[in-house]
Design goal:
heterodimer; A: about 425 residues; mainly alpha; Cytochrome Bc1 Complex, Chain C; 2 domains; two-stranded antiparallel sheet; two-stranded antiparallel ribbon; globular; B: about 180 residues; alpha+beta; Rieske Iron-sulfur Protein; three-stranded antiparallel sheet; 3 helices; about 25% helix; binds protoporphyrin IX containing FE; binds FE2/S2 (inorganic) cluster
Chain lengths: ~425, ~180
Amino acid sequence: MSGHSTYEPKTGIERWLDARLPIIRLGYDSVIAYPTPKNLNYWWTFGGILSVCLVLQIVTGVVLAMHYIPHGDLAFASVERIMRDVNHGWMIRYLHANGASMFFLAVYVHMARGLYYGSYKEPREVLWILGCVIYLLMMATAFMGYVLPWGQMSFYGAVVITNFFSALDQVIPGLGSAITTWLWGGFAVDNPTLNRFFSLHYLLPFVIAGVVGLHIWALHVPGNNNPTGVSVKSKDDVVPFHPYYTVKDGFAIVVFLILLSWFVFFAPDALGHADNYVQANPLQTPNHIVPEWYFLPFYAMLRAVPQKLAGVLIMFGSIALLFATPWLDWAKVRSMRYRPTARWFFIIFIVAVLILGWCGGKLPDDVIIPMGKNPDGSPTGFSVVHLSRILTAYYYAYFLLVLPFVKNFEQTLPVPDSISAPVLTEKKG
Amino acid sequence: MATVNATNDVHGDDPSRRDFIHIAAASAAVGGVAVTLWPFIDQMNPAGDTLALASIEYDLSKVIEGMQATVKWRGKPVFVRHRTAKEIAEAVAADNEPMRDPAKDATRHKEGKSEWLILVGVCTHLGCVPNFGTGDYGGWFCPCHGSVYDTSGRIRKGPAPLNLEVPDYEFVSDTKVKIG
Ligand code: HEM
Ligand code: FES
């Protein structure tokens, strides 16, 4: 999309079309001739994987929508009917449900890749922000999708998440309740809520597809970052996308689909919750409600704070930080490959997020290190909430202290002059 | 509009008239968009039939002492709790303890009906339904994020900011209440 096009229409039809709608040229320039750094590793295959995930969700989703009934009395039964009676329905639903999980797995790897190699830095700020927008839209889509089967987890997930807005009552009395009533279309999560969530769950993936288009556009202007973080300097640094990266991406996609298939065919409910096979009951909350695994770290942050509004702000703030990242990192060197100190902080950051996820799945009062007993004999001590607090603090510190200031204490390693330089002089990059 | 105050030239451009037309057109457009947008926003608010589900009646004689019934009102659970003498005494005894949302037990039930505690069964944290008879204070425990309510439905521990809400209700007879 940037630079000059090398596409030469070969047949008469192609020439005719090219003069009217140069769509083949667009495709050729974007996925065939597109000059790509020659040193991209497998962490760079997740963009392709994510595109496959989106297509998979849309195809399976449209099929599910042919059989699904968005009504409080019928939704649960219609999903059960998909599972038992609709031809191949069980497979299509499991592909959709596990596909969503794999989608998030891929997006987390993709984002961590960006954080490690400094892909958010100048000149890729807009690219990074569009990625954050996609991530937000994915969360909204997955949340509303999870409500559709109208099981107990669906229902109480919808209750808890829409109630985040009720925290605004603590800022302007009445504002939060007005918003939740508006979101629900009633005085509680009920049939109107389910209906609108279905409508939006159908819509948002196509909005995501649009933003993905912008994301790729914003990628093709500055071009890919690469593991060295050094900008492309000459033709020696790049190879055409096809066949080099079509094949590399293709291989990664196949491996990824094997993982997805393993879940779909051998452990289809491993990532779900048994309680969601119980129909929604507005009068009884299940004893242990937890969100889907991909929201657990944020859930842990929410619960780490004993005050309602503060908890909600800390949770949303953790995502706002991602948007601000391009302006929080003040180091000149892009790739952490040459930043020995920052790299350690990064590794701890990843571990912290994983442990936060673990905390999100536990009960807040679960004791990790027992120190004495309550009057009733149950152990007390260092609990999941305490651990969540420390890790949440680290999450914030990573963005607000480490990224801006670590460069003042860091001795960076020598950065190669060009992408080709280390390949030609060193054995391993 | 750069040619401010050019002497009444070719087109007789009067800048103030031109400005007026621009501003008027822009405000009409903004007003029009806002007026058109509003129905599309407001359609999400509760519909007429949802609002019409105003009140329900409930026969208290079904709830034996020490137990609670959960009734659905406007899509939400309402707890109808028949408190024991001990539970009432505990609630009254705690009246002066420090609380997040201080309230006397007497303000939480109808006069002379201290055994009947009628509350909206929605945790004031993020809306789960607290479990009856559990938690450190013998009232309710919310399984979602651990809010603990006492036998008067007052918040005593955990993240919830407010006591369980007392809905509008009245006794229509000794054994019947009208909620809503
Ligand atoms: C970004 C893409 C998408 C994501 C992340 C996503 C996610 C989800 C999730 C997590 C569920 C709950 C699965 C379960 O536990 O049963 C779900 C259900 C559903 N989704 Fe999607 N979805 C996406 C796209 C779509 C599209 C494009 C459609 C329709 C055109 C669709 C239609 C449905 C339907 C009908 C259900 C209810 C049936 C079921 O529960 O399996 N989805 N979605
Ligand atoms: S919803 Fe009850 S404690 Fe959070």
